[in-house]
């Protein structure tokens, strides 16, 4: 083998290792953000949580996650992604331990908040690495791979988490996640070491310059329209797979812990496949906006249908979950649209501002849904009413359609280059 071929092999192997490491840490993030759905009835039974408290518990993660996006973006652009990933892993480990040993709802929520804080930079830091290390035409594809394979974490939060909870309990399950995250933090320190090099020229920004960069991001044309679309992008999937899907299956259909875990596996598998398929659609369509509007429209249609019919046969339930997972996986294209709006030195801050909308949307939707469900009387066994779930699904369908109206007027760099 020639020296040149050997060098190419080494570079290729390093790239694969780098991507695999970034995917692994994002798997942890996806698991944690969606881990309440399957175990919500268990948490409610053990700690006496109401519907509002369950909604608050789940949404706290996303509130903290969204609240720190701007500081994360500033750190990302000033110091590079490696520091964000290592510090985030450390805080996540602490959060997992606090959550696992929580004796009451208050400490449980604190642990959940720490988990949101720790994982806040996992995706955007990974995307910053891709933006720096790979060519621009590969960004959407790498984003699709990151999100697609990263969704394995959401998969683990379904049937595997149900099995683990039934076997060793939810507390021990979260301690195991903390140990895994600790090991990943050590791996990141070694593998992502070289990824900061392209960002070296940006690390000497002053705090004032960093804040000015945030203002420049906010002044970017159409960023507000993309922010609104981000509010419903992930919140739709998180509403089902991350929170109310489990209680809905238990209260309306009477499914057990293992059964609801197996059923919630279906939309996650759909999301994994869908993210990889949607990731290349912008290049095929020659547009960022068209695939996003199609995906969002299909997501609204599926939620609206379930809101109208209320219940489905077992076969149709599986089919609905699969279709919903596929339809709602359009976010790689929306992320690529956002990335294309910003110059290279603002990509970190730009993505974190938009990610704030994505995670903030989940906080708003899950909090509002908890109060919406509380409007209806519960059954003698504490089950929430079918009409409560129908209202929640219908509200989200309406939110998506309103966001599409705002997003429709955004500029599309693939059809009309953005003016810098």
Q: Under the CATH scheme, which class?
A: Mainly Alpha
Q: What general outline do the C-alpha atoms trace?
A: globular
The proportion of residues forming helix, as a percent range, comes to over 70%
Beta-strand percent range: under 5%
- CATH homologous superfamily descriptor: MFS general substrate transporter like domains
Q: How would a textbook summarize the main sheet?
A: none
Named at the architecture level, the CATH assignment is: Up-down Bundle
Count of beta strands: 0
Write down the domain tally.
Answer: 1
Provide the residue-averaged pLDDT. 85
Rg, Cα atoms, Å: 21 Å
In CATH, the topology is named: Growth Hormone, Chain: A
Specify the structural class.
mainly alpha
Number of helices: 21
Summarize the structure.
The chain has 420 residues and is mostly helical. It has helices at residues 3-33, 36-47, 51-67, 69-79, 81-100, 105-119, 122-133, 139-150, 152-156, 159-168, 170-191, 207-218, 223-233, 235-253, 257-278, 281-285, 289-309, 314-327, 331-340, 347-374, 386-407.
Structure characterization notes:
The N terminus is likely disordered. It is built from 21 helices and no strands. The longest helix has 31 residues. The chain is mainly alpha-helical and 420 residues long. The radius of gyration is 21 Å and the shape is globular.
Describe the secondary structure blueprint for this structure.
Elements: H1 3-33, H2 36-47, H3 51-67, H4 69-79, H5 81-100, H6 105-119, H7 122-133, H8 139-150, H9 152-156, H10 159-168, H11 170-191, H12 207-218, H13 223-233, H14 235-253, H15 257-278, H16 281-285, H17 289-309, H18 314-327, H19 331-340, H20 347-374, H21 386-407
Helix pairs in contact: 1-8, 1-11, 2-14, 3-6, 3-20, 4-5, 4-12, 4-20, 5-6, 5-7, 5-11, 7-8, 7-20, 8-15, 8-19, 10-11, 10-15, 13-19, 13-20, 13-21, 14-15, 14-20, 14-21, 15-18, 17-18, 17-21, 20-21
């Amino acid at each position: 083998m020639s020296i040149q071929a050997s060098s190419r092999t080494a570079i290729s192997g390093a790239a694969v290792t780098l991507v695999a490491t970034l995917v692994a840490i994002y798997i942890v993030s996806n698991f944690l953000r969606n881990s309440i759905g399957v175990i919500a009835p268990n948490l409610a039974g053990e700690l006496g949580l109401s519907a509002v408290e369950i909604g608050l518990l789940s949404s706290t993660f996303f509130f903290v996650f969204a609240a720190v996006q701007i500081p994360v973006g500033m750190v990302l652009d000033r110091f590079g992604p490696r520091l964000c990933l290592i510090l985030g892993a450390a805080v996540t480990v602490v959060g997992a331990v606090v959550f696992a040993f929580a004796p009451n709802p208050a400490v449980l929520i604190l642990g959940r908040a720490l988990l949101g804080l720790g994982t806040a930079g996992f995706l955007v830091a990974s995307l910053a690495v891709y933006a720096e290390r790979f060519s621009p035409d590969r960004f959407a594809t790498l984003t699709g791979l990151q999100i697609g394979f990263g969704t394995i974490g959401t998969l683990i939060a379904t049937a595997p988490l149900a099995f683990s909870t039934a076997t060793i309990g939810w507390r021990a399950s979260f301690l195991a996640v903390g140990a895994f995250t600790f090991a990943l933090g050590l791996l990141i320190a070694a593998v992502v070491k070289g990824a900061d090099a392209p960002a070296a020229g940006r690390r000497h920004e002053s705090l004032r310059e960093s804040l000015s960069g945030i203002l420049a991001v906010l002044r970017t044309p159409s960023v507000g329209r993309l922010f609104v679309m981000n509010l419903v992008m992930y919140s739709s999937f998180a509403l089902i797979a991350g929170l109310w899907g489990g209680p809905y299956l238990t209260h309306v259909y009477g499914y057990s812990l293992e059964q609801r875990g197996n059923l919630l596996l279906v939309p996650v598998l759909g999301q994994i496949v869908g993210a990889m398929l949607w990731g290349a659609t912008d290049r095929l369509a020659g547009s960022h906006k068209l695939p996003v509007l199609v995906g969002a429209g299909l997501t609204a249609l599926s939620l609206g249908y379930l809101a109208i019919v209320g219940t489905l046969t077992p076969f149709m339930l599986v089919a609905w979950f699969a279709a919903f997972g596929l339809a709602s996986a359009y976010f790689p294209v929306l992320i690529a649209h956002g990335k294309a709006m910003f110059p290279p030195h603002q990509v970190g801050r730009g993505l974190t501002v938009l990610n704030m909308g994505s995670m903030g949307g989940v906080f708003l939707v899950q909090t509002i849904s908890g109060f919406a469900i509380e409007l209806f009387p519960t059954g003698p066994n504490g089950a929430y009413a079918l009409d409560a779930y129908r209202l929640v699904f219908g509200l989200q369908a309406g939110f998506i359609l309103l966001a599409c109206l705002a997003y429709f007027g955004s500029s599309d760099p693939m059809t009309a280059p953005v003016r810098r």
